[in-house]
């Protein structure tokens, strides 16, 4: 079996269809004012709330599949090296054990997501699958990979699960709230794993630590989805500060993520404005 | 209640554990190091395969089984220092190059359309042989001196049996044609031949020697 | 009278106005809108969102955003299932408003979200009986979100789903009595 798979190589059955990120970015409708109207925070009183929750839940489901695959690949892609004498392609035995544990957790999250999808009336593969979550799990440096996946993406998962848990709570949906509560607990554990390994593996290599944290910033910004995750009232997914604290994020780190989200939002708004102007010029 | 000061047999009538065992500390450490290596190779392969298997239920199950074997590897890793091996890495390895070749062949199928081969390697060949090796070890080690290994073997065996059952169910559901029956049989034969050449997952003597007529190996060691 | 689709040619999405018109014609016939009813489907293709409204009854004018007809798996591609779902519900709403028993329905803009959901459940149940592919669980979930995750809400859902000739007064009464039993947020 080959090492280091690409997102294009992920195996799926016929129900799944890959959504091309470039198609979304280049969608000519992005420039319209209506497209940027947004729907705001996911709350039960929104007219489209049940369908929006279903779509978000399906996104979580395929994200869990990719997280399972990413953790599995980290078990396989790197050789075990002796602690203290690791080169950049090696990992400690205990790190692999953590990744195997994460595999099990993510497999359960997939199972939970399938059951939740049935509960919410969503079909497996109903929505296109974006594979850019797995992209972060393709980094050939295990420290960068763990930082990108376990600190940035699993951190995002904390925010998303907390949003869904609150949604289930407000809507009075005991099944959704129960499932999200349990998955949230696992995600806090995964973020702690990422933070612990980042600290241990870079204790004598500040340059690598810097590169890992920079990679995390890139992933965090990318996964703020132009303000989808942020602290503004209209952000559909909110930064879950309390649970992030449990996972080991300090205030400065959370402020930085909030700032990255604001930056991502401003950039998208600017791109939309330019696209609108271009459309208007073209139609004139 | 009886008089609490009244002497009792240290081994109560229902406790029939015996001192003799077939393995010395050194031999036990060697086997445990080989178990750890095999469990590692197995959980790495299962983890790696998750992304290459299109069948959703199997993808999820392999993720679960991946952890079972990682946990076994950790059990054996932690047992090694208790067996006077202070450098667990030293004994973590295959029993022989032939065993290594066998494990490489188990992990080799990586294509999307090779789920049958992946599952055959693990659930028809490797896990049955692990069950055999662990059972032999369990039944021949000293029930008194080696109780910690026995406890780990029992935990591991429980997982192995349940995973074997899962794997058999998945394989049974996948094999639907004569051609697939043959594919599975061919791959199984290929791996079994490698294992025969290796003498078992721990090399020759993995499950003792059924043709040795000299008696109970456990009794021989201590006599 | 054939359906008119505006725009007649799409440039931002891969939609075919003739296909949409044919679908609307068939649905209109099956939901009981007469041949003499003029139907206008206006699609705003400049936005990927999916809001839809019934603008008027004569002609039956449905205004929607392109996301409503879009294949959720393939960006900018048409989905017959999605379009059937949206057009079916809105054409049934128009048909309902044109029949006896619906004279006292408030304008769409004055309907509450739960009232709209109850009416939609009634419409989708009828679409299912007309042979269209609908996902009952999706609508049960939407209904529970509005009326509570309770047996009472599920009973009301069944009445709406299976009722063929419910009047607005009956839908509204079910909505009101069920809403009164909604326990609201979880108490943990």
What are the SSEs and their pairings?
The complex is a heterotrimer of chains A (284), B (223) and C (188).
Chain A: H1 21-25, H2 49-77, E1 79-80, E2 90-91, H3 93-120, H4 132-136, H5 142-171, H6 174-201, H7 206-222, E3 229-230, E4 237-238, H8 241-246, H9 251-283
Parallel strand pairs in A: 1-2, 3-4
Helix pairs in contact in A: 2-3, 2-5, 3-6, 5-6, 5-7, 7-9
Chain B: H1 25-50, H2 56-82, H3 88-91, H4 97-107, H5 115-140, H6 147-174, H7 178-198, H8 217-222
Helix pairs in contact in B: 1-2, 2-6, 4-7, 5-6, 5-7
Chain C: E1 4-6, H1 17-31, E2 39-44, E3 52-57, E4 60-65, H2 80-97, H3 113-129, H4 136-147, H5 151-162, H6 168-179
Parallel strand pairs in C: 1-2, 2-4
Antiparallel strand pairs in C: 3-4
Helix pairs in contact in C: 1-2, 2-3, 3-4, 3-5, 3-6, 5-6
Give structural notes.
- The complex is a heterotrimer of chains A (284), B (223) and C (188).
- By secondary structure, chain A is mostly helical.
- Chain A is 64% helix and 3% strand.
- The longest helix of chain A has 33 residues, at 251-283.
- Chain A starts with 20 loop residues before the first helix and ends with a helix.
- Chain B has 223 residues and is an all-alpha fold.
- Helix content of chain B is 67%, strand content 0%.
- The longest helix of chain B is centred in the C-terminal third of the chain and has 28 residues, at 147-174.
- Chain B is elongated, with a radius of gyration of 20 Å.
- The mean pLDDT of chain B is 95.
- Chain C has helices at 17-31, 80-97, 113-129, 136-147, 151-162, 168-179, and strands at residues 4-6, 39-44, 52-57, 60-65.
